[in-house]
């Protein structure tokens, strides 16, 4: 999920905590739990420090990796709760611990539900786990919380309000999960296509995107109700191509491929050489695929610049590539 949703859920869990009479009767404990749930709801994303110290490529590969693993659930909970308890000496530690733990678990759980996924099974497996049934930003989740906050501010019991709010949210998630299964089944049966099918949620319950991959092609489309719309078809690239093979040696491409799925590669001639663009077909914005790795080659097919991450306009991409090219020259 996006950061705004994680923050919102942190406050929502703090409201739900009032269902515990010990929390409702102790404002200091309630305050500590509020800090714990908001911090816990965002703690797994503290791996952002990788981007600050190791660069965007390393962050792209490792985001939602070790920080979302099984050991991290317990380590982050213990660290956050212990630090908070230093500033609240007259509270019971156990409620702070388990509400913070719930916040951390829900962060990872909701990340598993969307398309990007997590390596939540580490250290037992490094496989990316993704259930693909809620979008990175879901307005229904935000709406349920906003209604809860309004009722809380108008003196309704926050524990009761968010108990019913999270019950409704649970029903909504169950519905979305089964709708995703039904859409996948319908597309598979209606098209009678062999290969791997990945369903991708949008903000609308009846509209879903999908990627169908075979040994030779990728097909990208959407389904709205029962209407299937085929949008793009790509023939898979020839990996004996020297230009593509040169780009595979780039570290940013390697970072990108480590956690991407349905990746397609294109290359274009430029006045100075070639641009090689790797795109993740799961993430589409109209006719554009913003999650990518791009490598600039000179005419002798030497790598002169590269970048990986989310790019939503070409001007911004040019700036990022120029920045990496200038750093390479300085080195």
Helix content: 40-55%
Helix/strand class:
alpha+beta
Span from first to last CA?
37 Å
Number of domains: 2
- How many strand units? 8
What is the arithmetic mean of pLDDT?
Answer: 92
Q: Radius of gyration in whole Å, from Cα?
A: 23 Å
Shape: globular
Beta percentage is 15-25%
Give a description of the structure.
The chain is of the alpha+beta class and 331 residues long. The chain has 2 domains: 3-176, no CATH class; 242-330, no CATH class. Helices cover 50% and strands 19% of the residues. The chain is built from 12 helices and 8 strands. It has helices at residues 3-16, 21-24, 27-42, 49-54, 56-62, 70-85, 93-113, 139-153, 158-191, 242-248, 251-258, 314-330, and strands spanning 196-201, 207-213, 217-224, 227-235, 263-270, 273-280, 291-298, 303-310. The strands form 2 sheets. It has a 4-stranded antiparallel beta sheet with strand order 1-2-3-4, with helices on one face. Strands 5-6-7-8 form a 4-stranded antiparallel beta sheet. A hairpin with a 3-residue loop joins strand 2 (207-213) and strand 3 (217-224). Helix 1 runs parallel beside helix 8. The longest helix has 34 residues, at 158-191. The radius of gyration is 23 Å and the shape is globular. Residues 326-331 have low confidence and may be disordered. This is Metal-dependent hydrolase. Keywords: Hydrolase, Membrane, Transmembrane, Transmembrane helix. GO terms for molecular function: hydrolase activity.
């Amino acid at each position: 999920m996006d950061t705004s949703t994680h923050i919102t859920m942190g406050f929502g869990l703090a409201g739900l905590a009032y269902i515990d009479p010990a929390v409702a009767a102790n404002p200091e404990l309630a305050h500590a739990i509020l800090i714990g749930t908001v911090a816990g709801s965002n703690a797994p994303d503290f791996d952002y420090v990788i981007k600050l110290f190791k660069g965007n490529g390393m962050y792209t590969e490792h985001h939602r990796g070790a920080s979302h693993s099984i050991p991290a659930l317990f380590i982050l909970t213990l660290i956050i709760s212990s630090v908070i308890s230093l500033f609240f000496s007259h509270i019971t530690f156990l409620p702070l611990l388990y509400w913070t733990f719930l916040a951390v678990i829900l962060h990872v759980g909701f990340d598993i539900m969307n398309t990007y996924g997590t390596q939540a099974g580490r250290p037992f497996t490094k496989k990316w786990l993704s259930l693909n049934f809620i979008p990175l930003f879901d307005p229904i989740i935000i709406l349920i919380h906003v209604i809860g906050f309004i009722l809380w501010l108008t003196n309704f019991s926050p524990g009761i309000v968010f108990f019913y709010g999270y019950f409704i949210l649970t029903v909504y998630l169950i519905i979305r999960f089964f709708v995703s299964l039904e859409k996948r089944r319908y597309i598979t049966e209606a098209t009678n296509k062999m290969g791997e099918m990945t369903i991708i949620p949008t903000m609308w319950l009846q509209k879903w995107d999908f990627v169908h991959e075979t040994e030779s092609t990728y097909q990208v489309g959407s389904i709205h109700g029962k209407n299937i719309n085929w949008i793009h078809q790509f023939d898979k690239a020839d990996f004996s191509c020297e230009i593509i093979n040169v780009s595979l040696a780039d570290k940013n491409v390697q970072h990108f491929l480590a956690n991407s799925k349905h990746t397609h590669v294109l290359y274009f001639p430029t006045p100075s050489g070639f641009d090689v663009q790797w795109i993740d077909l799961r993430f589409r914005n109209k006719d554009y695929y913003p999650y990518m790795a791009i490598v600039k080659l000179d005419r002798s097919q030497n790598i002169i610049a590269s970048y990986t991450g989310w790019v939503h306009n070409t001007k911004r991409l040019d700036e990022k590539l120029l920045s990496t090219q200038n750093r390479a020259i300085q080195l």
